[in-house]
């Protein structure tokens, strides 16, 4: 998704902007640009389709600058559509979507304005130019009041050298300070390499960077806001060799250890009343986080403590759910900035539900919105494809499920004691990677593949398929093992790869039946199970032995070989698994 940066620095402002943009790259983008404002009030822009590295060249002078990585929504990726956009004395970068831009543009065209891009963002800078009567922040406030949709904005005004004004509604924004430099940025991880101190900016607030960071409300009243020191775990990661995704898969055991340590140190008392009295549990998330939520619903359904409803955030928002004050709403999001999940949580909050968040980014919008936040502590995840954060999300959700069972029934489920075995067992899963690598090489030319799983294995099948689609750009689908013959079996032909996950003893035979059916139609079959017996009795062409753990916890482990497989497949197919086509790490628009 688009990322914005604003920087005030007497020294090396251009270089600082470029290095901040490089830290925003992981969010996914297709063009980039910067604009610097000199002390004499000259705005100079450099913007290009493609990578941030395309902006390198003779440093642009100026002590205040703004920058942008664009993920196209309105208008194709091109030099013209790249930000910053300029009009009169103003330059602007924008993350978000302006929903009423067409009407605003119409109005500006009537007044004779000429637009140079197809973007929704360009209307904002034109409106600023019209609204400006000498008061920089006042003009920004006036314009923001006319915008519908979401935005994080950073703006330069030629009359105000050494200053940047910023605003936020519905898109993430954080301010930061370092020795000799002040920042606003879309993203905490991207800012942490630059800033030593952080200060959150809330929806509806405005920021003015000059000799200090000043935060204002919508009426122009200054708000006291304190800074917190950047914690070491907030600092963005780097890899010496290989890809971030490979490194992040290798970090799963450590992430699980850190997550568990954090969970054991977390006081759940503040949510005891809500959990004990919960009539229903709702869980909403997107993509990979949604698959983790499905496993949470499975593990809770098994304990039969109360009704659990799990849905994607984008569906929850528009389904008029019967959620109320006796309910608990759990929002799961690695970034804590996913627009649909934030809106779903706001909706649940407006209905009086108790909100629990599970996030990996401290000080994210979600962590500040919820009544009780559970920090994942998986460490920064830079690759667009979620890996270690998924394992950590599952651990957090299972831990939360155990707390809920305890508050409702007075005792913890038996499997809670085995959570501490997960980091070691995850390491043991690495033993499957040789086989998965060979499989990736064998399946390099496959046209697509299926992933099957029953019950608790089904969300893992969905996640395996999502990983392959996302980073190997191959058609892949996850199905409940019993569902294939209701239509999708028609796609199975000679050599078509079908993975099956089978970790539930009571269902070994059922999953085996599904494998036999696809094998009889020519499929190349791969079975993953912890049971030597299930594997030895299987008709599968390739058999992968998983380490042993008690049944409900398998989702945390059985996904690891699939994550690794997808990564190898992506690399062998000549792709960059860290930056998949068309995708962004943090989806901050609806
Ligand atoms: C997973 O590999 C994806 N990149 C994506 O599905 C992601 O999980 C989803 O966009 C949700 O992100 P969040 O956890 O930051 O809310």
Key features of this structure:
seven-stranded antiparallel beta sheet; alpha/beta; SIS_dom_sf; 590 residues; 19 helices; single chain; binds 2-deoxy-2-amino glucitol-6-phosphate; aminotransferase; 34% helix; 25 strands; transferase; EC 2.6.1.16; carbohydrate derivative binding; eight-stranded antiparallel beta sheet
Q: What percent of residues adopt helix (DSSP H or I)?
A: 25-40%
Strand content: 15-25%
* Count of DSSP-assigned helices: 19
Instruction: Give the overall shape, derived from the CA principal axes.
Output: globular
Biggest beta sheet attributes:
8 strands, antiparallel
End-to-end C-alpha gap: 11 Å
| Structure classification | alpha/beta
Which molecules are bound besides the chains? 2-deoxy-2-amino glucitol-6-phosphate
Unreliable stretches: none
Count of distinct strands: 25
Strand order of the largest sheet: 3-2-4-1-10-9-11-15
EC number: 2.6.1.16
GO molecular function, one term: glutamine-fructose-6-phosphate transaminase (isomerizing) activity
GO biological process, one term: UDP-N-acetylglucosamine metabolic process
Protein name: Glutamine--fructose-6-phosphate aminotransferase [isomerizing]
């Amino acid at each position: 998704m688009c990322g914005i940066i604003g920087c005030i620095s007497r020294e090396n402002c251009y270089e600082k902007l470029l290095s901040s943009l490089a830290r925003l790259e992981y969010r996914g983008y297709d063009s980039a640009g910067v604009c610097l404002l000199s002390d004499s009030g000259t705005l100079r822009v450099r913007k290009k389709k493609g990578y941030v590295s395309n902006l390198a060249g003779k440093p642009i002078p100026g002590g205040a600058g703004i920058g942008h990585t664009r993920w196209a929504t309105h208008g194709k990726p091109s030099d013209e559509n790249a930000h910053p956009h300029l009009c009169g004395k103003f330059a602007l970068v924008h993350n978000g979507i302006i929903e009423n831009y067409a009407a605003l543009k119409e109005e500006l065209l009537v007044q004779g304005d000429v637009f140079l891009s197809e973007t929704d963002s360009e209307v904002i800078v034109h409106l600023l130019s019209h609204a400006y009567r000498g008061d920089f922040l006042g003009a920004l406030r006036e314009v923001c009041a006319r915008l519908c949709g979401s935005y994080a904005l950073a703006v330069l005004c030629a009359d105000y050298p050494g200053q940047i004004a910023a605003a936020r509604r519905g898109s993430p924004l954080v301010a930061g300070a370092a020795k000799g430099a002040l920042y606003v940025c879309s993203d905490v991880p991207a800012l942490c390499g630059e800033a030593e101190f952080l200060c959150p900016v809330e929806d509806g607030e405005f920021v003015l960077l000059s000799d200090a960071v000043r935060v204002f409300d919508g009426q122009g009243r200054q708000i006291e806001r304190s800074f917190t020191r950047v914690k070491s775990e907030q600092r963005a990661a780097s890899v010496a060799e290989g890809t971030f995704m490979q490194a992040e898969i290798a970090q799963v055991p450590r992430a699980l250890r850190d997550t568990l340590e954090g969970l054991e140190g977390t006081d759940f008392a503040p949510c005891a009343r809500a959990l004990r009295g919960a009539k229903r549990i709702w869980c909403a998330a997107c993509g990979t986080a949604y698959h983790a939520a499905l496993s949470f619903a499975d593990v809770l359904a098994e304990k039969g403590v109360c009704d659990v409803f799990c849905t994607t955030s984008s569906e929850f928002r528009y389904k008029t759910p019967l959620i109320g004050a006796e309910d608990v709403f759990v929002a799961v999001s690695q970034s804590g900035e996913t627009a649909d999940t934030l809106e779903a949580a706001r909706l649940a909050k407006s209905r009086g539900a108790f909100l629990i968040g599970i996030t990996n980014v401290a000080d994210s919008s979600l962590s500040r919105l919820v009544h009780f936040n559970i920090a994942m502590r998986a460490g920064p995840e830079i690759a667009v494809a979620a890996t270690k954060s998924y394992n950590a999300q599952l651990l957090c959700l299972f831990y939360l499920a155990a707390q809920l069972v305890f508050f409702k029934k007075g005792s913890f489920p038996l499997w809670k004691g085995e959570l501490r075995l997960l980091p070691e067992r995850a390491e043991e899963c690495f033993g499957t990677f040789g086989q998965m690598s060979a499989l990736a090489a064998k399946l390099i030319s496959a046209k697509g593949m299926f992933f099957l799983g029953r019950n608790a294995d089904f969300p893992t099948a969905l996640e395996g398929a999502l990983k392959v689609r996302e980073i190997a750009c191959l058609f892949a689908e996850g199905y409940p093992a019993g569902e294939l013959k209701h239509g999708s079996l028609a796609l199975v032909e000679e050599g078509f790869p079908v993975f099956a996950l089978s970790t539930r003893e009571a269902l070994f035979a059922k999953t085996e039946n599904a494998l036999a059916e696809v094998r009889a139609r020519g499929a190349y079959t791969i079975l993953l199970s912890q049971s030597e017996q299930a594997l030895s009795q299987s008709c599968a062409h390739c058999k992968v032995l998983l380490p042993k753990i008690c049944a409900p916890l398998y989702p945390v482990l059985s996904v690891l070989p699939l994550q690794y497989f997808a990564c190898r497949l992506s690399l062998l197919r000549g792709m960059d698994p860290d930056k998949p086509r068309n995708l962004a790490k943090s989806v901050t628009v609806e």
